[in-house]
Amino acid sequence: MEELITNLHLHTRFSDGSGTHQEVLQAALRSGLDVVIPTDHNVYVQGMDGYLRDGNRQVLLICAEEIHDPSRLPQKNHMLVIGANRELATYAPNPQILLDQVRNAGGLTFLAHPNEHALPSFGETDITWEDWDIHGFTGIELWNGLSELKSVSHSILQTIFHALFPATIARGPLPETLALWDKLLAGGEPVIAVGGSDAHALHKTFGAIRKTIFPYEFHFGAINTHLITPSPLSGDLISDRHMVLQALRDGHAFIGYDRPAPTRGFRFTAQCEEMAIMGDTVRLRKGVTLQIRLPGEAECRLLKDGKVVQTWHNQEICAYISNQPGVYRVECYLRYLGRRRGWIFSNPIYIREG
Predict the structure, then answer these.
(1) What's the start-to-end Cα distance of the chain, in Å?
(2) Distance CA 112, CA 79 (A)
(3) Cα–Cα distance between 199 and 221 in angstroms, integer?
(4) Can you spell out the DSSP letters for 299-353?
(5) Predicted local confidence at residue 162, as pLDDT
């Protein structure tokens, strides 16, 4: 199996970001990414999908879209639409119709920043997802890099400090979003979690200081979605694009906060009659061995149906034998800049009754 480090949910000059698609690709290549997925607001940018190559390194760019109803005040219900291959923003006023149209087009839907705090000192309202009378979405954005600024900044000075020193922001997914995810998973259907950067690379002025706030390269080295795929990128746009979308669809992925330490190499698998990976379902017969491999020593927690069933400290290899059906997922934490921070959040392995 291969691993593709993917940064998704970011914006270019086609909406409210500052960079071109070429500049995004260049920043992604410098940052060691494999895939980057821009999601401009209410515009599906066609003709930009492709690669940037440098020697043996290449980065794939796949254009997607963040759709919301701009006439709704205050703003709510932002949806990441990936792989639909056509403009669907006209359906934004009715989220269920939008979901149906995306599914009919073969695309994926992730509810963006489903919980988000307001930032009144800068006139920013929360853009939480509110319409839960829906069904059929692929998953949720469990951890949003830019939205987290609002949850840790409680004054103008704190906001400016975090803008100047962005590495101090990340703590982990909001507790209410983790609880929401576990509640959705308890409904019996897979709900895929992704991490989004929400990168804009905004140009701001603070008195005499002019600075690009959260440049693309900062975000590309922070919260990423790591996809587990059957092969590396081949250089064929059609097949690579399909492989990336299939990994997202299947939940063969984990969220890694790559700034404290690289998360490449994390694996969460199940051994029964055959091996399963994140996003897969296995049938419970005699027992299932869950195995966790970390790229470095950390605090590792295994959760079943949202409850911690085992915690390991300062280990890289962990194992747990399960004799009960449930939804099993992994959280990892480590210390960085004087604080315990989220590091890795896996998609679940689903153990069902045999």
Answers:
(1) 27
(2) 5
(3) 11
(4) EEEEEETTEEEEEEEEEEEEEEEE-S-EEEEEEEEEEETTEEEEEEEEPPEEEEE
(5) 87
129-149 tens-digit pLDDT: 999 999 999 999 999 998 898
Buried b (16+ CB within 10 A) or exposed e, 149-183: bbbebeeeeebbebbeebeebbbbbbeebbebbbe
Rounded Cα distance, 24 and 33, in Å: 11
Give the predicted TM-score (pTM) of the model.
0.96
Percent share of the chain, pLDDT over 70: 99
* CA–CA separation, 195 and 173 (whole Å): 9
DSSP string covering 221-236: TSEEEEEEESS---S-
Half-sphere exposure of residue 312: CA atoms within 13 angstroms, side-chain side: 19
- Rounded CA separation 308/185 (Å): 15
CA distance 251 to 234: 21
What's 285's DSSP letter?
Answer: S
138-189 residue pLDDT tens:
999 999 998 898 889 888 888 888 888 999 999 999 999 999 999 999 999 9
Q: What are 76-121's pLDDT values in tens digits? A: 999 999 999 999 999 999 999 999 999 999 999 999 999 998 887 7
Q: Tokens representing 53? A: 């190559």
Q: What angle do CA 238, 250, 236 make, to 5 degrees?
A: 15
Question: Per the omega criterion (within 30 degrees of 0), is the bond before 190 cis?
Answer: no
User: On the CB side of 193, how many CA atoms lie within 13 Å of its CA?
Assistant: 27
Q: Which of 174, 125, 178 is nearest to 145 (CA)?
A: 174
d(CA 64, CA 145): 18
Single-letter residue type at 151 = S
